Amino acid sequence: MPRKRKEGTRAPNGASSIYFGTDGSWHGRVTVGVRDDGKPDRRHVRGKSEVEVTRKVRKLEQDRDAGTVRKPGRPWTVERWLTHWVENIAAPSVSENTIAGYRVAVRVHLIPGLGAHRLDRLEPEHVEKLMQKMLRAGSAPATAHQAYRTLKTALNEAVRRKHITENPTLIAKPPKLVEEEVEPYSVEEVQRLLIAAARQRNSARWALALALGLRQSEVLGLKWADVDLDQGVLRIRRGRLRPKYAHGCQVPCGRKAGYCRDRITVHPDTRDTKSRAGRRPIGLPDELVAILRRHRDVQAAERALAASLWHEAGWVFTDETGRPLNPNTDYHRWKALVRAAGVRDARLHDARHTAATALLLLGVPDRIVMGIMGWSSDMRRRYQHVTDPMLRDAADKVGRLLWEVPTAAERPAGGE
């Protein structure tokens, strides 16, 4: 006959208890900590047999001793947690570009794919199925991997705060990320791009990208105070951010915030470069110094023409009224430049690869190349498949020139 808890008796404070209830089920109670209001956090389990409840009580005690008991309260759903995490935990502590990527991953992929699950019941298989679904729907492997990394970061924080006991993404197999091969432009293609750029406004912007490998944000974030044309040096100190807007209209205009006539910019134009690798001086070839001097003279003429409409903030590259260039507009101008030059279509970032490859082919030491490019770790291996064959070809040519014995037909007349 099942034993019942004796009336008038109770387990010592903090001790677990197991008893048969009047409802015909076995019950267990385990104190696992203290609630936010200071009262004991006593958890309840039930089962059909004493053995079943004993097993559940022991498991709760083990989790309590290991510090892995889920916090009390209404269980989080994946949607509620991701929304809370991205806006209240991640947003105040990461850069604007990083939080923009997090928001896209959360809003576009993770919440539609996993949001209805209870956070503490999310399984590795759920994550893997979502990744495969994204790939089948046409998402790039890098996009799926970005969603996976975002979820992993969010769930690590949930574990740290004891909303869940383990992170299922640590068990799930992430999508395979194939590293994109470097495809730099040839010297002839670069020359054609520079010729086409010379016919456009802000042509110096493309000369800097192709010759020095500056990132888009670094070029657009340059101010004249960062450029010393007399010494032939520029310093990278900040990066241009993608604009983000909010409505400024009193009556809803019905448009997206970016197209509102009274729109308000909600974050700064730039962010200071934080890493040591990113903050760096770069020497300017004489040809670039001359290009920048001409660009400065043209800008002075534009400033005079715009008169009171000019917004003076010291930007090297501006629109017709002195405002910093929009990264999205800059991207479309790059695509137009590629078409005008008649070269193969490529990413704006490929201009950076071109500069890095040229430096390596010229034999510039890796450490110096890393400093010029702003690499925080050795990226040399990504260019190995491009530069090594070219270097081998050059070595073969030198070898044939110096040591290959000419045939009788190739010997000059009168030679021995």
Automatic annotation (TrEMBL):
List this protein's GO terms for biological process: DNA integration; DNA recombination
The cross-references to InterPro entries, in alphabetical order and at most eight, read: CB, DNA_brk_join_enz, Integrase-like_cat_sf, Integrase_catalytic, Integrase_recombinase_N, Integrase_SAM-like_N, Tyrosine_recombinase_XerCD
List each copy of the Tyr recombinase domain by range: 180-396
Q: What is this protein called?
A: Site-specific recombinase XerD
- Pfam family, any one: Phage_integrase
MF terms from GO for this chain are: DNA binding
- Region of interest (Disordered), ranges: 1-22
Q: Which residues form the Core-binding (CB) domain?
A: 76-159
Q: Keywords for this entry?
A: DNA integration, DNA recombination, DNA-binding
- CDD domains xrefs: INT_ICEBs1_C_like
